[in-house]
Amino acid sequence: MLQSKLFLKTLKETPADADSINASYFVRACFAQKQMSGAYALLPLGFKVYKKIEKIVREEMNALGGQELLMNVLQPKELWVETGRWESAIDIFFKLTDSSKKEMLLAPTHEEQIIDIVRHHIKSYRDLPLALYQIQTKFRNEPRAKSGLLRGIEFVMKDMYSFHASEEDLNVFYEKSKQAYFNVFKRLGLDAKLVAASGGIFSKYSHEFQVLTEVGEDTIYHCDKCDFAVNKEIAEVKEGDNCPDCGGKILVSRGVEVGNIFPLKTKWSAPMNATFTDKDGKEQIFIMGCYGIGLTRSMATIVEVYYDSAKNKMVWPKEVAPFDVHLISLGENTEAEKIYDDLTKKGFDVLFDDRDTSAGEKFAEADLVGAPTRIIISKKSLEQGGVEIADVDGTKIVKISEIDL
Amino acid sequence: MLQSKLFLKTLKETPADADSINASYFVRACFAQKQMSGAYALLPLGFKVYKKIEKIVREEMNALGGQELLMNVLQPKELWVETGRWESAIDIFFKLTDSSKKEMLLAPTHEEQIIDIVRHHIKSYRDLPLALYQIQTKFRNEPRAKSGLLRGIEFVMKDMYSFHASEEDLNVFYEKSKQAYFNVFKRLGLDAKLVAASGGIFSKYSHEFQVLTEVGEDTIYHCDKCDFAVNKEIAEVKEGDNCPDCGGKILVSRGVEVGNIFPLKTKWSAPMNATFTDKDGKEQIFIMGCYGIGLTRSMATIVEVYYDSAKNKMVWPKEVAPFDVHLISLGENTEAEKIYDDLTKKGFDVLFDDRDTSAGEKFAEADLVGAPTRIIISKKSLEQGGVEIADVDGTKIVKISEIDL
Measured between CB atoms, does B91 come within 8 Å of chain A? Predict the structure, then answer.
C-alpha cells in the first residue's frame, strides 16, 4: 500500500485522557479513535491488525474442531429468565425495549442462545461431542471502562461452547482446548500463563490465560520455576511461600486475562432443560464447556507488551503486524518503486512511504506503525551498496538484487 | 467436511411462522435459527454462505479504493444531536442508557461517526478523495420485522462513505461505485437493476440496486427494452406508458433493495461543521457520498431467486455456495473416501455425505444444502463405469480417474 493513500495521521502528543500505554498508542498511531469512554472505532491500520488476530483465532478454533456461527446481539428477556440471569447480573447488562415494549438485552455472552440452538437441533448422543463458536462484538454496561481497549463497553470476543455426553469427554476436549489457546497466544506474540481460578459450584477449577504486565488488573500467584499459577481469589499461597508443586519461590504479579476456559458441566443446560438421548435411550442433560478469548483486549495487550515507551516505538509481532515490511524511500530515486512491486508480487504486505516529507517525520511515523521489518532506500544506502534492512536482528546493508526477507 | 460431523439437522416441514421462501428455507435447511421476530442466528452452513458474500463485497470495495475500518454499535447522543437526527428519526432507533444514565443509541447507520473521524484526521484537500467502509451488524427498531432475513431488527450491512474536495470528484467516484456494485451483485448471482430514487433536497437522484422478485416491497417502473428504471416515489411514468428514453413499454414490478448509493454532498458534513482546507487555503465543507449493501438481505434475496419451491430444491450460485461439491456415497464402497481426499487436495470445498442413511434422506438433504455440483457414487454408478456428476448442465457418468470439475 502507498502511504500517501493510507488513512494514517499520527499525533505527536499523547492524548490528554489516555490512561494506559495502549490507549495512548492506538490514538497517536491512528489505529483507533475514541468514540466515548470504553468504545473505540478501529481505523484502517487497527482494523488490519484486528483481522490478523481474528484469522489466527479462527484457524486454531477450526483445528480444534469448532464450527463457526454467528448469534444475535439482541436477546429476548425470556431466554435469560430461564437461567435466572435476567435478574441476577442485571447491572452489567445493557437493557432496552423494542417498539412493542418487548424487553431485550445486548448479549455480553451467549450460553442462553447456544443452548437454545442446540436443544432445538441435537437430540442424540451420536451427534456429540459438538463445539460451536463465534467471533462477535459484545457489550457490557461497564461503569469502570478504562485502559483503552482493555476494558470497554463494546469489544470483540471469540466465544466457543462445547457439548458432551459425559464429563470424561468434556475433560478430553477441555485439555485439548488448552493447547489450542497456547497456540493462539503464541502466534499473537503473547506469553500467556495458564492460571487456575474459581470453578464455581460445579467444578474445582476454571482456567484463565493471563499475560503478566503492569497494566493488568488481576493478581496472580505463580512459581519462579514451574508452571504453578493461581488467581488471587482462590490462592492458598502468598508471596515468598514455597511452591506446592516444585518447592520454588512464589511470586506475585498483576495479569491481563486474555482468555478463559470453564467446565460449565450442567450449570446452564440443566435450568434450560437441554437434553439428549444417551446410548441406553435415557434422557440426559448436556455436559458443557465454554471458552473465551478477548480479541480487542489481546490486541491492546500486545501493545502493552511490545510498545517501547522510552523510544516511542512499536514493533508488532510478525503474524499480527499491520504490514510485513515498511519500505521507506528518502530523497529521489527510481529503485524504491521497483522494490515495492517486487516484494508485493512475492506476497509481502508492504507499506511504501512514497511521500515527499522529511526523513525525521518518516521514521517517527514508522516507529508508530510498527512493521517488524523496515527497508530504507536513500542516497546514502545506495552509496553503501543498496538498501538498509532493519529488523529485530539489527541493521544491515543489502544489495537490491539480494533482498531476501 | 464430513457430513457426519457437520451441524446440519434439516426439518421436513415448513415452520409455521415462516412468511416467505427464505424464512422457511433457512430454518428448514439448518442455515439459520429464528431467535425472535427479525433476529436470526446464522448456523454453520448459513455462516459459510455469509462469509463468502462478505469476501466478495470486501474484494470489490477494496478494488474501488475503499479502506476498511470498524466503527461502534453504541453511539453517544451528542453526535446525533449535531445532525438533528437524535430527535427526527427516533422511532426506528434502539435507544438505551449506560450505568451513569448517559443516553446512547444502537447505530442503524454511521454518517455521524465517520464524519467525526474524518474531521479529526483530515485537514487538507491533499488527502482527498477518501473512501472508508465497514461491514457490521446494524440495528433498527423495526415494528414490521418480517420476511426472514429480508427485513430484520438486526442485520449485516456494508456501509461506505466517500469524501471529496469537489462535486465533480464525487461524481467520478459515484459512477465508479455503480460498476463496483454491479460486480458485487453479479458475483452473488443477483440480477440487480439500477433504479433512480429520490435524492432529497441536495441531489436530483440517489440510486437503488433492486432485484425484481415477488417478495420485494418496492414498486419499480422499468422499461422492457432499455435500462430505464425508477422507484415509485419519484416515478413520472405509469404501467404501459412509453419509455421516455427509448420508447419501449413501461412495466411495473416489486423489488428488493439490496443496495443503494447516495450523493450526500454536504447534507451531514455541513451541520457537523466538517471542513478541510482547499488548494487556495480556504476552508471548505467535505463533499460526501454514501454507499450501502445489505449482506444478510442479499443472502435472503439469493434464496428467493434460486429456491425452487415446486422441487423443494436450492442451488446456490457458485461463488456463494456453502460447498463447491456435495459428494454422496450410497452403500458400501472404498472409492468415495479417495475421491473426497483427492478433491479436497485440489482445493475444492467438499461436503462428503459419509453417513449410513437412506438414499432418499441423503438426496432430500442435498437438495436443501444446495451445492452447485453433486457427485454420487453408488453400486449402480460403479456398474455404469464410475460416478454420477450432476450440475446445472445436467447429469453424466464419469470415470473416477477422469473427474474434472
Answer: yes
Counted across chains A and B, CB pairs separated by less than 8 A come out at: 138
Q: B155 contacts in A (CB within 8 Å)? A: none
Q: Check if B279 contacts A (Cβ < 8 Å).
A: no
b/e A217-251 (16+ beta carbons within 10 angstroms → b): ebebbbbeeeebbbbeeebebeeeeebeeeebebb
ipTM comes to 0.97
Instruction: Compare CB distances from B35 to A91, A113, A141 and report the shortest one's residue.
Output: A113
Concatenating the DSSP letter of every residue in B341-373 gives HHHHHTT--EEEE-----HHHHHHHHHHH--SE
What is the least distance, in Å, from the CA of B35 to any CA of chain A?
A: 8
Give the bridge partners for B394, in sequence order: B391
Q: Average pLDDT for residues B105-128, to the nearest whole number?
A: 97
Q: What is the mean pLDDT of residues B50-56?
A: 98
Residue B90 has pLDDT above 80, yes or no: no
Could you report the per-residue pLDDT of B172-204, keeping only the tens digit for each?
999 999 999 999 999 999 999 999 999 887 788
Mean pLDDT is lowest, of A84-93, B112-121, B265-274, for A84-93
CB atoms within 10 A of CB B175: 10
Can you list the domains of chain B with their CATH numbers?
21-306 (3.30.930.10), 323-402 (3.40.50.800)
DSSP string, B151-209: B-SEEEEEEEEEEESSHHHHHHHHHHHHHHHHHHHHHTT--EEEEEEE-TTT-SEEEEE
Distance between CA atoms of residues B106 and B108, nearest Å: 6
A132 touches chain B (CB under 8 A): yes
What is residue B399's predicted lDDT score, i.e. its pLDDT? 92
The C-alpha cell of B186 is what?
453479479
Given pLDDT bands bounded at 50, 70 and 90, which one contains residue B342? very high
In A, which residues are within 8 Å of B154 by CB distance?
72-74
Looking at residue A144, its pLDDT comes to: 84
- Judged by a CB distance cut-off of 8 A, whether residue A154 touches chain B is yes
pLDDT, block means (10 residues), chain A with 405 residues: 96 90 97 96 98 98 98 96 87 88 94 98 97 97 90 96 98 98 98 94 90 93 96 94 96 96 97 98 98 98 97 97 97 91 96 95 97 96 93 92 86
Q: What is the mean pLDDT of chain B?
A: 95
**Most distant CA pair in chain B: distance in Å?**
81
Q: Which of A401, A267, A51, A69 is nearest to B50 (CA)?
A: A69
* CA nearest to A92 within chain B: B99
DSSP B14: P
Q: Which of B33, B116, B153 comes nearest A74 by C-beta?
A: B153
Using alpha carbons, list the distances in angstroms from residue A26 to A42, A45, A53, A302, A361: 9, 10, 16, 11, 18
- Residues A268, A83 contacting (CB under 8 angstroms): yes
Contact, A154 vs B74, CB < 8 A? Answer: yes
**B120 touches A at CB < 8 Å:** yes
* Interface contact A98, partner B, CB < 8 A: yes
Q: Indicate yes or no: pTM above 0.90.
A: yes
Residues of chain B with Cβ-Cβ distance to A36 below 8 Å are 74, 76, 102
- The B residues from 2 to 61 touching A (CB cutoff 8 Å) are 5-7, 9, 30, 33, 35-36, 39-44, 46-47, 50
Q: Are B7 and A91 within 8 A, CB to CB? A: no
Q: What stretches of B12-129 show up as alpha helix (H) in DSSP?
A: 21-28, 44-63, 77-82, 85-88, 111-121
Q: What pLDDT shows up at residue B333?
A: 84
